[in-house]
Amino acid sequence: MLFHVKHTHSWEACPYHDADRAKETFGKAMAGIMESEVELMGAYVDAPAHTTFLILDATSASQIEEALAPVIDIGWAETRPVVSFGEVMNRVTEDS
User: All domains of the chain, ordered by start, with CATH?
Assistant: First the structure.
């Protein structure tokens, strides 16, 4: 199942200018994803907005929670199940 994760943090909590903090937060989170059964399908950042967007393939939201544990304390996240646009369009237009 695909999930879209939007993680946001404040400028005060941002690890952008602190390499050690970046390794301890997002570095560990990304390593956790790579070591887990969660598959990273895409990762994007809007650095000035302090927002990270991830597309993850996982069997449950709890898998994602575990993988993203290193960044839970520095911000907040929205996790939503999603499907591919093509899949929806195929389903919608199949009867046409």
Answer: 2-93 (3.30.70.1060)
Q: Record the tokens describing residue 90, joined without a space.
A: 């195929």
Q: How large is the greatest C-alpha to C-alpha distance in the chain, in angstroms?
A: 55
9 three-state secondary structure: strand
Rg (CA), the chain: 15
β-strand pairing of 75-82 with 51-57: unpaired
Q: What is the reported pLDDT for 95?
A: 66
Per-residue model confidence as pLDDT tens digits over 20-39:
999 999 999 999 899 889 99
Cα 37 from Cα 22, distance rounded (Å):
23
Residue 96 vs residues 86, 88, 93: alpha-carbon distances, Å: 15, 14, 5
Residues 26 and 83: their CA atoms lie apart, in Å, by: 25
